[in-house]
Design a protein that fits this description.
By secondary structure, the protein is an alpha+beta fold. The protein has three helices and seven strands, in the order ααββαβββββ. The chain has a seven-stranded mixed β-sheet with strand order 3-4-5-6-1-2-7. The termini are far apart.
């Protein structure tokens, strides 16, 4: 994804950050896991504060999404990005069957424009579903 900046390590602008977030969600929604992985830094950190879960690394994070249950779909409603190309906040509408819920996501980017951190906030605290203990650590 470094082709959006003039050289590796150069900070992106707001438009590039928005495009990176849009690519992240579009590839996740399409279940295009190779393209999804390409949006991520190798050492990406994913956090779910409400369930106190953290996933370290691209491979685990991609697998977490591949294994996530249900036929979920995501639509971006609003993106706010900093002018330095390092952070974004996104509001989404997530649909699983007939159920809809909003979520807020905070993204950080590495010097090459890949997503290095994602923190998701869902409407209510919850206990994580069984079966993903091999991918996460609880905090």
């Amino acid at each position: 994804m470094t082709d959006m900046a003039d050289s590796p390590g150069e900070a992106w602008g707001t438009a590039e950050v928005r495009a990176a977030v849009e690519a992240y969600w579009a590839t996740a929604d399409a279940r295009d896991w190779g393209a999804f992985a390409a949006t991520l830094a190798d050492d990406v950190v994913y956090e779910l504060p409400q369930s106190r879960e953290r996933i370290l690394g691209k491979e685990r994070f991609v697998r977490f999404n591949q294994e996530y249950p249900g036929d979920w779909h995501v639509r971006i409603e609003r993106t706010v990005a900093d002018g330095e190309g390092r952070q974004a906040a996104v509001r989404t509408l997530v649909t699983v069957g007939p159920d809809e819920t909003h979520a807020i996501h905070f993204f950080t980017f590495d010097a090459d424009g890949r997503i290095s951190g994602v923190t998701d906030f869902w409407p209510e605290p919850y206990e994580p579903p069984a079966g993903r203990e091999h991918l996460v650590e609880r905090y």
